[in-house]
Write a structure and sequence with these properties.
mainly beta; 22-stranded antiparallel barrel; 5 helices; 58% strand; TonB-dependent receptor
């Protein structure tokens, strides 16, 4: 059966399911049952106003703080398990700089200076650095995932959508909590918060968290260092002050650190098929390079039977540090409200990698990054019974200092034709980004049930870059390159580049919301989002990259429609949406033969999502979600053999399914809640070439949890098993291009327990 026929049938079945559920909504919703913890309605601020997520004409997924705890979410990256359409990739493994992909829109470049098209916000503060996307999720009120272009309501424009983390704020009563957990690999987690009034009109809240874990990826070399351990700390202090009835000020000081041994991965020997120009895995019984069956050009292959085991001759230290201060001022002017958000955030990232994933002194990559970010947002908001409007201005300044090094030792370099000695590339550079924008949006009722939304945004992005590029060779290069090493080596290339670009663009949104009843919303919108251009610092110094050093802004036009059905009986929620994305100058990423760059091409994406929550019996909750991508085409991609073809966008599986089943069982005044949750992802590519070696087959993950809640609702105990079947899969796969590929692996089976206690009012 052809793929087109299968996809057409899938579309038809999805539409039929939606019509079937909508037709029987009254019958399913007729008897009222108590709200479950998982699946209950959440008040969100996706439109900068507190509204039920079921009343917002945007495709949105939201999880409350209690739901995050019930799902076992410990860090920001866990959200991908429970959010249809949200994907995560990390060249460097877990806890390293990570990039989110939503509906196929993402940024695959792992350089720290790039901004992703899916924006991350923490309490309305934008995080520009990919380094800042991996952090502990603690003391949260909720998380909101907004799909599609965002720019007419939020400070920084985003083409793919955004993820907003909303923390718990100081209150006028004393309260707090403590969570302590222990699990496999000696994983220790702890978090807690305490807050309340200090004086009249003055409140504070202190929140702390830590996660420690031994390395589960083993190194079989004598005295070898494994990987995938965790050593993370984070803290946040908030001080809220109300000098008058109309003015509220909140200051937040935050910090986080994650350091230790970075992630390890599995070595895959690869070769380029001359007929297709694509990278394939070398079979274990084929001596492709004349160095032994299954071996790469340096004579190595990973033959360990244990999936999470390797042989690594080099260390892989990693450190991520973050600190920041923000100030939020809210002024009530009657019908108008004025908001000011001022923030400074500093990121530091140090990363070293045994790139060849083997015992041979072959390839080594390193990163040093320091990023300072200042932002100022002003919003004037107007609310009346008839019209709701918002006008805002945003300023962002990002200063970054970066240095990358890539060393090709003679074990790989000599057979690859780089000469008899070691070769190294050292590239220090600075990037300065300055962005100004004004934006606004208005909601105007056309009838009692029909509402028009219109918004626009003007943005100017200016970027400056100063880059030095050195390529040297000498017999024995050290693991850490310095300017002295460059001076004491034979120079093959030494160049300095200064670049400046300025981009101006306009984004907009038009939408209609039809709400014929309190439990039904139908919405449709057309939205344009844009993201500024930038620069490609070479991964390995080469003059060949200069013609493609810069890339242009990308423009995404989204056409979307959807339906939201709410109920209080068996059917609690049925949400469905369908969309078409037209991309002009999509910022695609390619990595080939140690050359990494972003380039522009047109693209088109079409898909849909569905979320269904049922309460078929008292205490029983079933939650199902699906994200389906029918088309995700990057046009006119030039393959390594020179052929030009359309390719599937990376991280766009045909289907991504999520599910949860939970049963709350009363035991006297206490409660026991067994829970199963998981997801299934069909096969997908991790690169725009669609290399077979970078392809992940479909896989499913299943988790089991058991909760006990004491009669006073303050004390609770949970037991968990994650990746119950010990599924082996590649969380990210990257063909390095030097006869080998890297497979960064998903976590093996883990299990443990967590004790929680809430105190105060």
């Amino acid at each position: 059966m052809g793929a087109k026929v299968v996809k057409k049938r899938l579309k038809f079945r999805y539409l039929a399911l939606g019509l079937h559920v909508c037709a029987f909504t009254p019958a399913l919703a007729q008897d009222r049952r108590p709200d479950p913890i998982v699946g209950s309605d959440i008040i969100v601020t996706a439109t900068k106003r507190g509204e039920s997520q079921q009343s917002v004409g945007i495709s949105i997924s939201a999880l409350s703080g209690d739901q995050l705890s019930a799902l076992g979410v410990k860090n920001s990256t866990d959200l991908t398990l429970y959010t249809p359409g949200l994907q995560l990739q990390s060249a460097g493994g877990e806890s390293n700089a990570m990039a989110l992909t939503l509906r196929g829109v993402g940024q695959s470049d792992f350089n720290d200076h790039q901004e992703g098209p899916v924006a991350i916000y923490i309490d309305e503060v934008y995080s520009s650095a990919l380094t800042g996307t991996s952090f502990l999720a603690f003391d949260l009120d909720r998380v909101e995932v907004l799909r599609g272009p965002q720019g007419t309501l939020f400070g920084r424009n985003a083409t793919g959508g955004l993820v907003q983390f909303v923390t718990r704020k100081p209150t006028d009563h004393f309260d707090g909590y403590v969570d302590v957990g222990y699990g496999r690999f000696n994983e220790f987690t702890a978090e807690g918060a305490v807050g309340g009034p200090i004086a009249k009109g003055l409140q504070a809240r202190l929140s702390l968290a830590t996660e420690q874990r031994d390395r589960y990826f083993k190194n079989t070399l004598p005295n070898g260092v494994g990987g995938n351990g965790k050593n993370s700390f984070a803290g946040r202090f908030q001080l809220a002050w109300q000098p008058s009835d109309t003015v509220s000020i909140r200051t937040v000081v935050r910090g986080a650190e994650s350091k230790g041994s970075g992630a390890r991965g599995r070595h895959i020997t690869s070769y380029i098929d001359p007929a297709t120009g694509l990278a394939n895995a070398v079979p274990d019984n084929v001596d492709y390079y004349g160095t032994g069956p299954g071996n790469d050009i340096a004579g190595y292959k990973n033959s360990n039977g244990n999936y999470w085991t390797g042989e690594f001759d080099q260390t892989n230290p990693m450190t991520i540090k973050l600190w920041g201060v923000s100030n939020h001022i809210d002024i009530d002017l009657g019908a108008f409200k004025l908001f000011s958000i001022t923030d400074y955030t500093n990121f530091k990232h140090i990363y070293r990698e045994d790139t060849d994933f083997g015992p041979v002194r072959g390839l080594r990559y390193g990163v040093n990054s320091t990023i300072g970010q200042f932002s100022q947002e002003l919003r004037l908001q107007y609310d009346s019974d008839a019209v709701k409007a918002l006008l805002g201005a945003y300023f962002l300044n990002v200063d970054g200092d970066f240095q990358t090094q890539f060393i090709v030792y003679k074990a790989y370099g000599t057979p690859l034709g780089l000469g008899p000695d070691d070769s190294a590339s050292l590239i220090p550079w600075t990037t300065k980004t300055r962005s100004y924008s004004v934006f606004g949006q208005a909601d105007v009722p056309l009838t009692d049930t029909l509402k028009l939304t219109a918004g626009a945004r003007w943005t100017q992005d200016t970027k400056k870059q100063h880059l030095d590029s050195y390529l040297v060779t000498r017999p024995d290069l050290p693991d850490e390159l310095t300017s002295a090493d460059i001076a004491g080596s034979t120079s093959l290339l030494s160049e300095t580049y200064r670049n400046r670009r300025s981009d101006k663009f306009i984004s907009w949104k038009l939408g209609l919301d039809w709400k014929p009843s309190p439990k039904l919303l139908v919405f449709a919108s057309a939205t344009r989002g844009q993201k500024g251009g930038g620069y490609n610092p070479p991964f390995f110094a080469s003059d060949a990259l200069l013609p493609r050093f810069s890339f242009k802004p990308e423009q995404l036009t989204s056409y979307e429609s959807g339906i939201k059905v709410s109920g209080s009986g068996i059917l609690r929620r049925f949400n469905a949406s369908a969309y078409i994305y037209d991309y002009k100058d999509f910022q695609a990423f390619q990595f080939f033969n140690a050359s990494a760059l972003i380039f522009n091409t047109d693209a088109r994406v079409a898909g849909s999502e569905v979320e269904l929550i049922l309460a078929p019996a008292p205490g029983l909750t079933a939650q199902l979600g699906g994200a389906f991508i029918f088309k995700a085409t990057a046009k006119d991609i030039t393959l390594p053999n020179g052929a030009v073809k359309d390719r599937r966008l990376p991280l766009t599986p045909d289907a991504q399914l999520t599910g949860l089943l939970r049963y709350d069982i009363p035991v006297g005044e206490a409660q026991i809640s067994p829970q199963l949750d998981g997801r299934y992802v069909t096969s997908q590519y991790y690169d725009v070439f669609n290399n077979p070696v970078d392809t992940q087959k479909g896989y499913g993950l299943l988790n089991a949890r058991l909760f006990y809640t004491a009669p006073d609702k303050r004390l609770s105990l949970s037991l968990f098993v994650e990746n119950l079947t010990n599924k082996k899969y590649g969380a990210y796969i990257l063909d390095v291009g030097l006869t080998m590929a890297q497979a960064w692996l998903g976590q093996p089976r883990t299990y443990g327990a967590k004790l929680s206690y809430k105190f105060g009012e």
